[in-house]
Amino acid sequence: MSPTRSWTGGTTIHEVPAVIVGAGGAGLWAALELARSGVETAVLTKLYPTRSHTGAAQGGICAALGNLEEDHWEWHMFDTVKGGDYLVDQDAAEILAREAIDTVIELEHMGLPFNRTAEGKIDQRRFGGHTRNYGEGPVRRACFAADRTGHMILQTLYQQCIKHGVKFFDEYHVVDLLIDDGETRGVVAYRIADGELHVFRSSAVMLATGGFGRMFRTTSNAMTLTGDGCALAYRRGVPLQDMEFYQFHPTGIPGIGVLLSEAARGEGGYLRNDSGERFMERYAPKLMELAPRDMVSRAIAMELREGRGIGGKDYVHLDLTHLGKEVIDSKLPDITEFSRVYQGIEPITQPVPTTPTAHYAMGGVPTDTNARVVIDERNTPLPGLYAAGETACVSVHGANRLGTNSLIDILVFGRRAGRSMATDIGAGTGLPDLATDAAEPAREEIEALRSRTVGESRVRIQTELADVMMVDCGVFRTDETLRNAATKVRELKGRFARVRIQDRGRVFNTDLLETRELGYLLDCAEATTTSALARTESRGAHSREDYPERDDGEWLKHTLAYRSEGGPDLRYKPVTLGRFEPKPRVY
Amino acid sequence: MQVELRILRYDPERDDKPRWERYDVDTGPMDRVLDLLQTVKNHHDGTLTFRRSCAHGVCGSDAMLINGRNRLACKIRVDQLGRKISVAPLPGLPVVKDLVVEMDDFFAKFRSVMPYELDDGAPMPERERLQSPEDRARYDDTTKCILCAACTSSCPSFWAKPEYVGPAAIVNAHRFIFDTRDQGADERLEILSDENGVWRCRTIFNCTDACPRGINITRAILEVSTAVVDRRRFAGRSRANGSAERDPAPVGAASSVAVGAGLSRRDSGGAAPAAEGVGGHPESSSGSGTEDGLGVMEPRS
Hints:
By secondary structure, chain A is an alpha/beta fold. Helices cover 34% and strands 20% of the residues of chain A. In chain B, helix 5 packs antiparallel against helix 6 (185-192). Chain B is of the alpha+beta class. Chain B is 29% helix and 11% strand. Chain B has 9 helices and 7 strands, in the order ββαβββββαααααααα. In chain B, strand 3 and strand 4 (69-72) form a beta hairpin. The radius of gyration of chain B is 21 Å and the shape is elongated. Chain B has helices spanning 33-44, 104-112, 133-138, 156-160, 167-177, 185-192, 206-210, 217-234, 253-264, and strands spanning 2-9, 19-26, 63-66, 69-72, 84-88, 95-97, 100-101. At the A-B interface, helix 3, helix 4 and helix 9 of A face helix 1 and helix 2 of B.
């Protein structure tokens, strides 16, 4: 690659066929596929690749290897479809469950240090919602490397990318997606080190920027998970799909939201209320603590609402004390350390306070099963644009994602994205034409922000957004709370148009970038609240107290939210059904 | 409670040299230093600049020098530090702005040890390769590394000789050298027998003390240097240590066996015996002190 071609008004132009925005699991595996195909690729990340939030995933990655007991990909597919409350596209779920197996094997071949069984095979453990024989009971399907599975996936893929000579642009913050005449033409990135704009002229752009949990007050998400990819696409006319479905993970550390992995329950941990009762008995008698996350989070929220939190406070207990030191030290070392560091609790001997925390966006940029972005109810592709992972909505998670399915999602569909890009670049006619002033809109926005001397700081807008989303668009919702949230988000967007920053420098200006990130969060929040208000049913993670039942007659369909001046326009597209007919979801 | 937070600030667009700024910050005992920094940025001075991402000790963004020791700002609490807290950038690395240091050289050194699995080119089996739990445990400690640079930038040998590949790179080489599936030990040991490789380690233990992941880094380095020696011995070219000369010893499976044999002697012993009584206490190399007595560790010139 000879990236630096010319200078036009302080803008460096790079010409490279493929650009990947984001260096988590999805982006890195796509990069690896492209490298293996000999396609020049630039991976842009606003961090260093090893800082990506894939590395925070703890418990495991599921694949029906059947190493410890009988298992089949069909069972995995069924669990995924049922776990997603039948909003899952079943063609995508079939691909996920089938390709999970060789994906995990390939990870092992890349050197990933999985835990091993006595015979030396990849070890597997139980996880919420993963069952044998179509729901009979828990199955050991989650492959793991202690409780740092995501860390090992991120490291392994980064290592392989280094081995294959992938070109990284570290600490480049993408600020615009170039789409013209219905065709993708590249991206504009802001080099954090010196504030220079870089244009990447490319015929294939992949969005792999992760989620947007930072719109909520209590979240497991990194401070950098601000919906950049979703918002950049949304601003360029791409719809956001199923944004009303946001997962709250049952076991976060109260206050700071750091996750205590579901692996703790997979290894046998209990949830208890103030009287010591294992209250999941009343909500999911068969799977108990290993029911899907939406159900466990709702159960905890109900216990808290009815005054059965510990000492009347806003948390319940995760009890690991019966597991013993050996299991805790060998299989759950990191999360027990989180309790020690952030709560001053010793999980070997004390129950751990825990409460639901905003965790995962089931929605995002709509794609087909080959990770090509599609922009309407007929799944029309937008040439040259790809997405995978939490940024995307393919949709394998439907209305609620099962634990461990996000790691397998980023890899299966990250790999597919890389292959699609290589194929399309090979069949294409070279780099797209690009206007000479392609960077101008981004430059104007950034300079306007840098030069504004009067206005409100980002801090209050950010706080008010996080508060209203947590309270009014959280585990439980009603027409009233969602109206309030939607109105508030609109007000905050108005105030954001006059936001002012303090740091006017060019070098490593995080004040500027955090403010831009807040803008991305506001866009994602607008799509989320509007989509949630419209959906008058309860399904998966979207739990409407005023519409408590699932309504397949009216609502077995995906939401598409399109940006418009007066607030998002909503359209709908059908769910791809298949071998599993929608049934009541009981565990 | 209120803490007196002092931050070493530097803005290359305005300052000739770094300066200490003091902030009195309201906080709770369970708050992390990262919370303090975010409070300053949000409510005192929006220009304060630092890297951060996951905020719970797994991404490695926010390593910095806190009360004289390299720590992750998100993993050290106010009640562990007291009411006077000093924060400065990682020592020994060029400062970009405030608490942000230049990391490209650090990552280049990581890449220099071939930190990826090398196989012998034989076709992979259809299923996973088998590895016993014991073989898996052999390199478990060094798989934890998050590349935060707390170790390398705490190392006096690195301060004295910035070309030294540094503890973090050796940790990542170790992770593969002792993985039974990997076939690249010979090449990595060759790289690390260079004059800027393992011999720069003087077992000072600063790295081990600094590691936020609790990796016994000094032991890992000693295991790698022992492997380098064993490899030479096996090739009939034994040397005491420290030569910059390239070792032309043949590569191949036989050398890898020697590596394993050499190391098995250490397996049961906890910390590597050679380290005992050799290194200085971690504290002894820090605390050159500042006028306010906060004990800031500074690179030796």
